[in-house]
Structures are given as C-alpha cells and as structure tokens.
C-alpha cells in the first residue's frame, strides 16, 4: 500500500499569523477574538496561551483568569487570507496543492517517486525549512499516509510542528491512542451513534465490520469510512455545489440591541446575495436567526421564489423581523439563503409586475461598482458600512476583494 497523500495543517493559524505580523508578540500568549468583549470567546490561541489552559472556545473572562498576561487581539480576516495565499504559493514551490480544505489546511497528492517514504519526507522537510526561513512564527504539522483521511489524522498526532508518517504496517494500531472525536467525520452526534452500537474506542472502531459502520452512518459513507481507516484510497464523491450561502456575526457590545441586530442582519444579507449572484445562482428560502444573551434564541424562514435580488430579499427579511421577540439582548445573528439552484432555467415570479423590486436592474450595477472600487463601497442605506466585517468560515476562503471594504485601500 503506497503513500499517496501529504497533508499540511498550520498550527494555531490566526494567532501564529498575528505573531508573524508583529514580532513583539512572538513568544507571548496571544488570543484572537471576534469582538473585544468579555462575553465572547477565543477563536484561536497561541501555543504559549494553550500551555496555560486557553484554547479555542475559551471565554475571554476565563482566558484572562487562566493567563493574566494574555494579549487579546480582534480578528483580522483579510490579513489571514493574504497569508493563506502566500503560504499556498510556498507549498506550491515544492508540491502542487490538490485541495484546500480550509484556510489553514491543504492536501497534496504524491505521485511517482514521491510515494517513496524517503522522498515524501524530504518534501515535507523542505516545506518546513522554507516556512521557518520565510515565516518563523508560523509552524505546520504535516502528515503523510496512504490516503488523505489518514494524512489529515496524522497531523493531529504530533503538534505543533510535527511530521508523522503512517504506512500500511502502522495500521490500525497506530490510531488506537486517539479518541473517537479526533477522527475527521466523527462529531458529537456520530459519537453517540457509535456508543449505542458499543463502539467507544478507536480500537473498537477499527475492529468493527463494514456493515456495522454502515448502520452507524446510515449510508454508504460508513463503508467508505471503514475503507479509509484501513488505508484504502477512496475517491471523494464529485461535489454538487453548496445548497446554501450564509453569513453569521457576533455582535459587538455597541450593537447588542434590536436596531443594531437588524442593521447587521441587513449587511449580512447584502453580502450573501452578492456572493450568490457571483455564482449565478438563486435562492428559494431565506432563514434568519438571532441568539440572545438573556432569552431563548429565535429562528424563522420565508420562501423567496428563485430570487437573487437584494431589495426583494431585504423585504422578506423585514417581514420576518416583524415577528421577532421584543425582549432580550441580541448576542449573535445569521442569515442563510437556502435551496440554491442555477439561475439559468428558473422561472420568474408570475406576480413580479406588481413588485418592481423583483425586476430591479440595480444589483448588477452595485456589484460592478464594488468589484471595481472595493468591497461594499456602495450598498443599501439600511446597513451601516462598518457593521459585520468579513469573517472566515471553516471550509471557505473569503474573496477579500469582494468582502473586505479595505481591500483596495493602501
């Protein structure tokens, strides 16, 4: 069984980029937060902070208690994206990148002589050497294995700055020290399913026959997981395109009121609609959610009939917001455009003549202006321009030129 995959996982990426960008932060505990407020949590922590108990998800007030000297910094998504592309180029000088899983993860395919252990390790070491020379504050854990699943798993087995090779002779016993949740594809719900089937350790998981895993997953994906554990190369199914586009945002303290939440929601909806038009798609359903500090959360949705027009979508949002709770302090908001389909082949609203906004030519003009002069240079007045800055989702690299209003500024 040959080595086929080399996987790269940059350690504590957001915090490491901050330390790379500001040499005074190197060697110091650093936490990155979405907004500067005690009620939020760290979305990244440097290894200096992790050694004192701070990790992703730690509340800011707890981070200060655990690590009195921690330096808390507001997230700078545009900076992280720019470093991502520089790191992508660095890796590309040694081996082509086959797949970008997230802003801090890349998978590479080994071919020909690269599949020999010594050659694969030499590639990994060359990447690490150039990384240390060009970006001394950023480290990466690299896994090499017969498939991408195991290579990614290997990156978690030695952090930070690790290099782990899993060959056929290492399987499956080398995985036994891991917890179930440490394997990609096993979250809280799947862990509970496995527990109900009597599987509580990775050793038990590896020993389980394929039909048992198929039962756990409820689909052929259980068979695929069974094969991946054994080092088989299992081609990923062809993507069919995302079925939704959405944005979420934790409100800063100054916007934690009804008007602030509404302003941010409208900004998020404008961003989502622009992204959708860029992909030449339309939405059939709009969903809005508000999480409160002192009250139960609220969620509602509306059908929007193959729509990509911002004014029409804003009208649907207004209708939904008219039914939101009138009490409580909002903490976080999100909008999602669901049931996306290609713009070509859809039918327009039979009643569009009574709704001029549905036929408005304004959106394409706004999109062209923003594409030329910078993200969100112009938009609808109902959303403040400084509200809801760019954020980075787990599996999507934002288009800085489209989403960051400062991208075109010196």
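-> sequence recovered:
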């Amino acid at each position: 069984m040959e080595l086929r995959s080399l996987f790269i996982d940059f350690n504590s990426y957001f915090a490491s980029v901050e330390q790379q960008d500001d040499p005074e932060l190197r060697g110091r505990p650093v936490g990155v937060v979405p907004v500067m407020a005690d009620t939020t949590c760290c979305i990244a922590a440097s290894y200096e902070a992790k050694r004192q108990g701070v990790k992703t998800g730690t509340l800011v007030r707890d981070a200060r208690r655990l690590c009195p000297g921690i330096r808390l910094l507001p997230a700078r998504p545009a900076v992280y994206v720019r470093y991502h592309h520089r790191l992508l180029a660095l890796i590309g000088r040694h081996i082509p990148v086959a797949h970008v899983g997230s802003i801090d993860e890349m998978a590479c395919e080994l071919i020909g002589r690269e599949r020999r252990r010594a050659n694969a390790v030499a590639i990994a070491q060359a990447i690490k050497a150039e990384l240390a020379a060009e970006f001394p504050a950023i480290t990466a854990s690299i896994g090499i294995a017969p498939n991408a699943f195991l290579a990614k798993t290997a990156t978690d087995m030695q952090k930070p700055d690790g290099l782990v090779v899993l060959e056929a002779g290492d399987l499956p016993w080398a995985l036994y020290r891991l917890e179930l949740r440490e394997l990609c594809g096993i979250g809280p719900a799947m862990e509970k399913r496995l527990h109900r089937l009597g599987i509580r350790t990775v050793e038990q998981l590896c020993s389980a026959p394929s039909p048992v895993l198929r039962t756990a997953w409820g689909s052929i994906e259980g068979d695929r997981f069974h094969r991946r554990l054994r080092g088989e190369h299992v081609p990923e199914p062809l993507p069919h395109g995302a079925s939704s586009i959405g944005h979420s945002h934790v409100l800063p303290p100054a916007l934690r009121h009804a008007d602030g939440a509404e302003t941010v929601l409208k900004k998020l909806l404008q961003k989502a609609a622009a992204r959708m038009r860029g992909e030449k798609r339309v939405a059939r359903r709009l969903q809005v959610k508000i999480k409160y500090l002192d009250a139960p959360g609220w969620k509602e949705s509306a059908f929007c009939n193959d729509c990509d027009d911002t004014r029409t979508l804003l009208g649907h949002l207004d209708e939904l917001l008219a039914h939101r709770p009138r009490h409580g302090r909002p903490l976080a908001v999100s909008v999602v455009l669901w049931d996306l389909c290609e713009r070509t082949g859809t039918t327009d609203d039979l009643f569009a003549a009574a709704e001029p906004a549905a036929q408005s030519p304004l959106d394409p003009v706004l999109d062209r202006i923003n594409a030329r002069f910078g993200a969100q240079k112009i938009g609808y007045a109902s959303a403040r321009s400084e509200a809801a800055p760019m954020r980075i989702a787990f599996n999507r690299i934002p288009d800085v030129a489209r989403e960051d209003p400062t991208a075109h500024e010196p």
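The first helix runs from residue 13 to 21.
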